[in-house]
Amino acid sequence: MPAPSIAASARVAVTGTLALTLLELLWEIVLAPLTPHGSWLAIKALPLALLLPGLGRGSRKPRQWLALLLPFYAAEGLVRAVAEPGRHAVVAATACTLAVVAFVALLLWFRGEANGNARAGVAGG
Length: 125
Prior knowledge:
By secondary structure, this protein is an all-alpha fold. It has one domain (3-120). Helices cover 80% and strands 0% of the residues. The longest helix has 35 residues, at 86-120.
């Protein structure tokens, strides 16, 4: 994978994760909270927020953790999109979409690095 597509994957992964973090926070406070005055479920944005600085630097460990976490955010969004009515379902479907997009971009980022290392003759480990 050429360097520009690695950079594009990185940008999409970082942007998608940032958007998902903000949406998860707003989801439970303003957009469609479970209780009328907000919900403690907003704390689910904290793991994403903690990984954002390392992700922005391109560090490998935060990306690995994010690859483990994003499927759970996608699953929650999918379940709540199907189970909840109205705007709750729309917000949940948006969160699911953002999580899937960020996850795919993250995988492409890893793949691009692996292909680049293989071409350079660097042993993966």
